[in-house]
Amino acid sequence: MPVRTIRLNGEETSAEYQSAGTGDDQASEPLLYWLRERLGQYGPRFGCGVSQCGACTVLVDGVPTRSCVTDVHTVPDGAEVRTLDGLAENGERHPLQKAFVRFQAGQCAFCVNGMVMGALGWLEGRIAAGNRAVPSADEIRDFLSGAGEDNDRNYLCRCGTHTRITAAIRSAAEEMVR
Ligand code: FES
Ligand code: FES
Questions:
Q1: Could you tell me if the CB of 54 is within 6 A of ligand 1?
Q2: Of the bound ligands, which one is closest to the alpha carbon of residue 54?
Q3: Which residue in 61, 71, 99, 161 is deepest, having the highest Cβ count within 10 Å?
């Protein structure tokens, strides 16, 4: 089987992946399965499997990516892949993780991986572009619905906790832009 090497949460990591065909006809196992089953990353979840909910989101070179519909072979060797599993640093939770706990932003919590990783990519992208304004509730709602100017992917919470999720993202953003 072919092997892919990435930087997973800052650590060089290699694993085999299933693949068939070559060139444009190549197909390989989804990044989601590869991360969960071969690399022990249990943050990303299988929700819909068809790029509709965001539960499987990871960051690939900083870009929120739906790992359920991303073949491993399309992820470049050496890509920086970040997962929820690696978000805490030195035992300290990321501001987004702390805010989701503080606001109890979830019922079943199945969507939370996507909410946190999607918001992380979105907020870090804004900050990298020089926008250090705390997003308004409307901007966060546009982010969640995929209607924002800088985001075309929606993030679905089947339990309907979007109000708390919006408050948690706004609170975390206040800390992230400081
Ligand atoms: S599981 Fe990937 S978008 Fe729903
Ligand atoms: S808290 Fe259940 S899907 Fe969001």
A1: yes
A2: 1
A3: 99
Q: Which CATH number fits domain 3-86: 3.40.50.2300, 1.20.1250.20, 3.40.50.1400, 3.10.20.30?
A: 3.10.20.30
Which atom of ligand 1 is nearest the CA belonging to 57? Answer: 2
- Please name the residue that has the structure tokens 């679905």: 156
Indicate the pTM of the whole model.
0.96
pLDDT score of 162:
95
pLDDT digits (tens, 9 = 90+) for 26-84: 999 999 999 999 999 999 999 999 999 999 999 999 999 999 999 999 999 999 999 99
Determine the residue type at 45. Answer: R
Amino acid identity of 159? C
- Determine the Cα–Cα distance for residues 95 and 87; give it in Å rounded to an integer: 10
Could you state, in order of their start, the residue ranges of all structural domains in the chain? 3-86, 95-176
Q: Which amino acid is at 173?
A: A
CATH of domain 95-176: 1.10.150.120
Candidates 33, 34, 36, 50: which one to mutate for ligand 1, based on the most atoms within 8 Å of Cβ?
50
